[in-house]
Amino acid sequence: DARVTQTPRHKVTEMGQEVTMRCQPILGHNTVFWYRQTMMQGLELLAYFRNRAPLDDSGMPKDRFSAEMPDATLATLKIQPSEPRDSAVYFCASSNSLGAGNTIYFGEGSWLTVV
Amino acid sequence: RKEVEQDPGPFNVPEGATVAFNCTYSNSASQSFFWYRQDCRKEPKLLMSVYSSGNEDGRFTAQLNRASQYISLLIRDSKLSDSATYLCVVNSPGGYNKLIFGAGTRLAVHP
Description:
Oligomer: heterodimer
Number of helices of chain A: 0
Mean pLDDT of chain B: 92
Largest sheet of chain A: 7 strands, mixed
Radius of gyration of chain A: 13 Å
Order of helices and strands of chain A: EEEEEEEEEEE
Strand content of chain A: over 45%
Helix content of chain A: under 10%
Structural class of chain A: mainly beta
Distance between the termini of chain B: 37 Å
Distance between the termini of chain A: 36 Å
């Protein structure tokens, strides 16, 4: 059963530390998304890539966040330095933009706590 | 104004009840609409797409009203297992056609 894989599943870190989250999209999917979810803001789109090229990262705080796709099987989201307000669930999702509709499939999320 | 707005709920209903959620969207050029379901501490999963003519999938019926820019989800004969948060999703047309999620409506079905 194809699925989006995210690591780490849970991370507790101290303020100021670097955090790197990784995502393996579903094989063959050419579009990858990073979302952040908090109780207050709901699901926010941070960045997205198509065919490994960044298309839109307007939702991402540029001073501390960066997103990359080194290859078609790996997407990364990095926070440096982390702050307590970054505590959230970070979801990676992928889709096949050539397929029917725009259904996107989410990973199980990376639960980040910054203390 | 948010691009996609939903009543956060919670909707507390007994088993067997019929419950309906509405969602409004701000961009009249949006073309793709979906309902996603998210269980507590889990990832969102696609429940159903919403088509212009309305569509049904078992106990679930989705409707689209383009003139008023709202989408609805009707759940008949609710089950305990329907308890979840239901997310309304709309595409944001433009160069990159991204999906915008509403904050979700929480449903709690009780015995």
